[in-house]
Amino acid sequence: MKPPKTDSSDFILSVQNLNAWYHTTQVLQEISFDIQRHKVTALIGPSGCGKSTLIRCFNRMNDFIATFKLAGQILLEGQDLYDPAIDPVEVRLRVGMVFQKQNPFPKSIYENVAYGPRISGIRRRHQLDAIVEESLKRAALWDEVKDKLKANAYTLSGGQQQRLCIARTLAVEPEVLLLDEPCSALDPIATAKIEELILKLKDDYTVVIVTHNMQQAARVSDFTAFFYLGELVEFWATDKIFTVPKDPQTEAYITGKFG
Amino acid sequence: MKAMQRYFELELRELQQQLLRLGGLAENMLRKAVESVIHRDEELAQSVIENDDQADAFENEIEERCIQLIARHQPAASDLRLLTTTMRINRDLERVADKGVDIAQRSLELMQYPPVKPYIELPRVATIVQQMVKDALDAFVNRNAILAKEVRERDDEVDAIYAQTLQELLTIMTDQPALLRPGISLLLLFRHLERIGDLAANIGEGVYYLVEGDVIRHSDP
Question: Would the CB atoms of B4 and A218 count as touching at under 8 Å?
Fold first, then answer.
């Protein structure tokens, strides 16, 4: 699954007429929008609006749910992620995901990061060392852990564990990084560090973040998509959404006039 | 989507009431200042000067309240536009009040001398700028973008009268040097009124942004 070389488009992901169901309940309705390369796109909306379902479609996490059904297309660099010829494992390497609750493996800090590259065939120690160092640096964690790489990941604080999970995802060199409420279990200082990190990461990756924290979306994202009851209500530059939203539903949600 | 009653809403409503109180005071100061010129009423001019502290106090209260509301609520969208616009209108209204004081001071100066010329343009331009301030505030209350933009367009008329009066006064002062002092006071008075037109136009631009979300400042009417 190699990206077409001729593709010079600004968009890395394209969602086209996406519909999704659990059993017979439709959770996403006719979603269409494009995600720009090297930008941060925030997905916001009240609980149950479909934003987490959508972000999970981006790396085929919903494949594990037996009752999940999908219609429409999600194109990564022009290729349909749900094409039967596509290997979902490869999709998950190209589109990495970090979850709400930090979930490091019960292993050393080093092994957490080396795990992905190792299973994709990298065995040489110096090569793994370099990947671990680079990934931890990119996740802004290296300085805090470089002297205790053999320590168990569980000895780290919550915020450090979350950055370790980001480093683990970066180690396999994804193109897109999906963050599903990555700060909701963290204190404000750890949150600020993750937000700083997100702003740095967009130089090398495309970031899609689901967040309940509207100020967070306003702080870190370039584009914001507002979902309500499974529909994409408004998708626009974050600067515009938070000052002059077009749709009254978006306005009501971001000003808190919503119950 | 169900609407939720927000405590913040009440606070915003109170803030707007406060801004309108400052607006009312500034309008009143302007009206009294102009009347004091026309009727050569010293007492009225003094009362305008005395109102200045009140206007300053209102401005400070409103500004502080806006900052507190921004800090506590981190407003977005129309709430954010309301607060930033309120801060701007607040400043402009306080300046209208200041200009009222300036006019009252010119009024006191002019009373020392016989009239330089009959007041023909004065009531005309005063009526226009007073109406501009009133309409700008009405546009704010009623979220009327059309009226807000229209206020700004009227500023051209004020500028034209000012330019014409300036020319006329220069001629008078050149011909009759004895009229230099009252002439300068009168010229400044027109200048103050012209500035009030600008301030009303600014308020109109602020209201337009509040309603439409488009910045029209520094663009051609």
Answer: no
Q: What three-state secondary structure class fits B191?
A: helix
Q: Residue A121 carries which side chain, given as an amino acid letter?
A: G
List all residues of chain B from 4 to 33 with a beta carbon under 8 Å from chain A.
Answer: 4, 6, 8-9
Say what the ipTM of the complex is. Answer: 0.76
Structure tokens at A196: 């700083």
Q: What is the mean pLDDT of chain A?
A: 93
pLDDT one-digit tens code per residue, B37-88 = 999 999 999 999 999 999 999 999 999 999 999 998 899 999 999 999 999 9
- Look at B1 and A249 and tell me if their CB atoms are within 8 Å: yes
CB-side neighbour CA atoms (13 Å) of A11: 14
Instruction: Give CA–CA dist B168/B156, Å, rounded.
Output: 19
Q: Which residues contact B178 (CB under 8 A, 6 or more apart)?
A: none
Smallest CA–CA distance, residue A227 to chain B, in Å, is 13
Instruction: Give, for B25, the enclosing helix (H) or strand (E).
Output: helix B7-38
For chain B, domain boundaries: 8-212
The reply to whether CATH 1.20.58.220 applies to domain B8-212 is yes
The DSSP result for A132-173, as a single string, is HHHHHHHTT-HHHHTT-TTSBGGGS-HHHHHHHHHHHHHTT-
Q: Across the interface, which of A244, A250, A257 has its CB nearest the CB of B4? A: A257
Per DSSP bridges, beta strands A95-98 and A176-180 are parallel
Phi, psi of B149 (to 5 degrees): -70, -35
B-chain CB neighbours of A256 within 8 Å are 4, 6, 8
Architecture of domain A11-254: 3-Layer(aba) Sandwich (3.40)
